[in-house]
UniProtKB/TrEMBL annotation:
Pfam families: AstE_AspA_cat (PF24827), AstE_AspA_hybrid (PF04952)
Species assigned in the record: Esox lucius (Northern pike)
Enzyme Commission number(s) from the entry: 3.5.1.15
Cofactor, how bound (note): Binds 1 zinc ion per subunit.
Residues the record marks as active site: 171 (proton donor/acceptor)
Name used for this protein in its record: Aspartoacylase
Binding site for substrate: 63-64, 157-161
Family from the record: Belongs to the AspA/AstE family. Aspartoacylase subfamily.
Length: 304
């Protein structure tokens, strides 16, 4: 690639995830902190109506709305608000998949799960993003910064950031919906600082040698146990609650039924659960996501 000149920072893709909304609003007022030499950085609130209502979305989840079908739908008043919004965002920052699209989009999210400061990678072949994540991990060590790879034929979805050539999600928690916590706010801010520093160094012509990056690849999703009417009949087991990124082995407790009995994990081999007990995923029939560990290799990159 030639350079990473156009960079956007999205907040409010989910209107009740307060760290990204607050940071982006701060930077819209004063962008000094996110300015870097040779980079044009645009902070942007993606779902202003949901932010105003402090709700995840108004009609439908914006972070699932960037499908080819939605983006090419004839515009009209009958479209859900978030689909119209996706079309506008695609016009400003895309078009998705075209040479005119923004180089990098950071999309700032919070989770109620104990995921720490997670970077979300959409493609194992995105060497630019892998190099950036390697750089960020090194910069914030000894603090950790897990990378979640969402490359999965069925579980991948059409995110707001997917409009960019290099989409990066930031998922920081635990933080309740509608709440701002200083530690979560600060760790998001620090990761973004390092990410922008990396882009500046890249644009200055620095060569990044080959490196390897440990990632957690999305494997499967687990729903809560339910009765025949679809009602949830168990909770995340206390041994699993807050244990995002820790190994879950066959036979380990997974759910606690309301009568006190334990439901154990019966899959094959060790998995690493994440998004454990995420509030927004109850409606998506998802108690947590399982992942497997993998090491990816990033080739050397240098501005052409
Ligand atoms: Zn979110």
């Amino acid at each position: 690639m030639t350079n990473a000149r156009r960079v956007a920072i999205f907040g409010g893709t989910h209107g009740n995830e307060m760290s990204g909304i607050t940071l982006v609003n701060l930077w819209i007022k004063n962008g000094k902190e996110i300015q870097r030499k040779g980079v044009e950085t645009k902070p942007f609130i993606t779902n202003p109506r949901a932010v105003e209502k402090c709700t995840r979305y108004v009609d439908t989840d914006l972070n699932r709305a960037f499908t080819t079908e939605n983006l090419s739908a004839p515009s009209g008043d009958d479209l859900p608000y978030e689909v119209k919004r996706a079309q506008q965002i695609n016009e400003i920052f895309g078009p998705k998949g075209s040479p005119d699209a923004y180089d990098v989009i950071f999309d700032l999210h919070n989770t109620t799960s104990n995921m720490g400061c997670t970077l979300i990678l959409e493609s194992s072949k995105d060497h630019f993003n892998l190099q950036m994540m390697h750089y960020i991990k090194k910069a914030i060590a000894p603090d950790s910064c897990p990378v979640l790879l969402t490359e999965h034929p069925l579980l991948k979805y059409s995110t707001s950031r997917s409009v960019a050539k290099h989409p990066i999600g930031l998922e920081v928690g635990p933080q309740p919906q509608g709440v701002l916590r200083s530690n979560i706010f600060e760790s998001m801010r620090v990761v973004l600082k390092h990410a922008l520093d990396f882009i500046e160094l890249f644009n200055e012509g620095l060569e990044f040698p080959p490196c390897s990056v440990d990632v957690f690849r999305v494997w499967d999703k687990m729903d809560y146990p339910r009765d025949t009417n679809g009602n949830i009949i168990a909770m995340v087991h206390p041994n699993l609650q807050d244990c995002d990124w820790e190994p879950l082995n066959p036979g380990d407790p997974m759910f606690q039924m309301f009568d006190g009995t334990t439901v154990r994990y019966e899959g094959v081999g060790t998995v690493y659960p994440t998004f454990i007990n995420e509030a927004a995923y109850y409606e998506k029939q998802q108690a947590f996501v399982t992942t497997r560990r993998e090491t990816l290799v990033a080739g050397a990159i240098k501005k052409a």
